[in-house]
Design a protein that fits this description.
Elements (H helix, E strand, L loop, with lengths): L3 E10 L3 H11 L3 E8 L6 H7 L3 E4 L4 H11 L4 E4 L4 E3 L3 H10 L7 E8 L4 H17 L8 E4 H6 L10 H9 L4 E10 L2 H6 L1 H16 L4 H11 L1
Parallel strand pairs: 1-2, 1-4, 2-3, 6-8
Antiparallel strand pairs: 4-7, 5-8
Length: 229
């Protein structure tokens, strides 16, 4: 498919060089602009983004702050928020175009199916657990992407500059009734799970979610998360 001139893709990044080129290649020519919101990378992240034609915006470190900075300079009515180590799967452009073209979706946001680039059985089990979380709790995470109109984003208060849990905060404010799951895989690198342990990393993520629901501040959750890495 050709360029979707109604769409801006926003990617927060910090030292994302190992995976960024593959992500940007998968997005090439698909949107009016790709905005890389960099949080102070010291590796070739910005050079890779520049070579791929992405627009680079500098922002305070933290996905919430970086996404907010990217959204602030985007020039189109629709935004796709996604991670630097995630590649959209086959058919994603057609699915995005169809969602955007339906007037009923002006007040809704779409997320995609979580997938990992690893053949291990643990990866399939984790994908199943994420699908269950999305069905039961309506809680897709940032690595599943989020397609949303700018005016809807503004109406719910925008992207808050949180150091962690910015994705949970955003989808909670959108609410279940405004979230639509699209059966297109967004394939994320499994490197972090292989490095930290499949169950160890998953337990840490679940712990962060539990602390969030208990009312612990995002700043404190971020400190605890960093300490356990």
């Amino acid at each position: 498919m050709g360029t979707n001139h109604e769409l801006s893709i926003i990617i927060p990044a910090l030292n994302a060089a190992p995976h960024l080129a593959a992500t940007l290649t998968a997005l090439s020519g698909a949107a009016a602009e790709v905005i890389l919101a960099d949080g102070g990378s010291t590796d070739p992240t910005r050079a890779i983004a520049g070579a791929a034609g992405a627009r680079i915006v500098l922002a305070p470190r933290g996905r919430g702050s970086q996404l907010a900075a990217g959204a602030a300079v985007a020039t189109t009515p629709w935004l796709l928020l996604m991670h630097a180590d995630t590649r959209p799967g086959q058919g994603w452009q057609a699915a995005v175009a169809a969602f955007m073209a339906d007037p009923a979706n002006a007040g809704r946001a779409a997320y995609f199916r979580f997938a990992l680039d690893d053949p291990a059985p643990q990866a399939r089990r984790l994908e199943g657990a994420v699908a269950w979380r999305c069905r039961l709790l309506a809680l897709p995470y940032g690595d599943q992407g989020l397609l949303v109109r700018r005016d809807l984003l503004v109406a719910i208060g925008g992207i808050r500059p949180l150091p962690i849990m910015e994705d949970v905060d955003l989808v909670r404010r959108l609410g279940r009734a405004r979230l639509v799951g699209l059966d297109i895989p967004f394939v994320t690198s499994a490197e972090r799970w292989r490095r930290d342990g499949w169950w160890g990393r998953s337990a840490r993520n679940l712990g962060c979610l539990a602390l969030w629901f208990l009312g612990v501040s995002p700043a404190r959750i971020a400190r605890l998360y960093a300490r356990r890495r």
